[in-house]
Design a protein that fits this description.
Blueprint lengths: L1 H62 L4 H59 L1
C-alpha cells in the first residue's frame, strides 16, 4: 500500500511540476506583453517630450525676440494688453468711487429715516 502511495505522490509531483511550468510560461508571456506595452508607452512619451522641447524652443525664440515679425506682434499685443489693463483699472476705480458714494448716501438716508421715525413717534405720543 505504501508503494502505491509513493507512486501516486511521484506522479502528482510530476503533474504539479509540469502544470507549474505551464503556469510560469503563461505568466512569462503575459509579462513580456506588458513589457512591450510599457516600451511603446515610453517611446510615445519620448516623442511627446521631444515635441514639447521643440515647442519650447520656438517659444523661447519668440520671447527672446529672435523673430522680428514675432517681436512686432508681441509689442502690438503688449500695447493692446496695456491699454486693456488701464481701461479695466479705470472702470474698477470708478466703480469703487461709486460704491463708496452709495454707502455714504445710504448712511445719510438711514440717519434721516431714524430722525423721521423719532419725530413721528413724538407727534404720535402728543396726540
Amino acid at each position: 500500500a505504501s508503494d502505491v502511495y509513493k507512486r501516486q505522490r511521484q506522479s502528482s509531483t510530476n503533474f504539479d511540476s509540469s502544470a507549474g511550468q505551464e503556469e510560469l510560461k503563461i505568466e512569462n508571456m503575459k509579462l513580456k506583453k506588458k513589457v512591450e506595452v510599457l516600451e511603446q508607452e515610453v517611446e510615445g512619451l519620448g516623442k511627446t517630450v521631444d515635441s514639447q522641447k521643440a515647442g519650447a524652443g520656438k517659444l523661447f525664440g519668440f520671447i527672446s525676440g529672435r523673430n522680428v515679425e514675432g517681436e512686432q506682434k508681441s509689442q502690438a499685443n503688449f500695447s493692446f494688453m496695456q491699454k486693456l489693463v488701464n481701461q479695466l483699472t479705470e472702470t474698477i476705480t470708478e466703480r469703487e468711487i461709486s460704491i463708496q458714494s452709495q454707502k455714504e448716501i445710504n448712511k445719510q438716508l438711514g440717519t434721516r429715516v431714524q430722525q423721521l421715525e423719532k419725530d413721528l413717534a413724538k407727534y404720535s405720543n402728543q396726540k
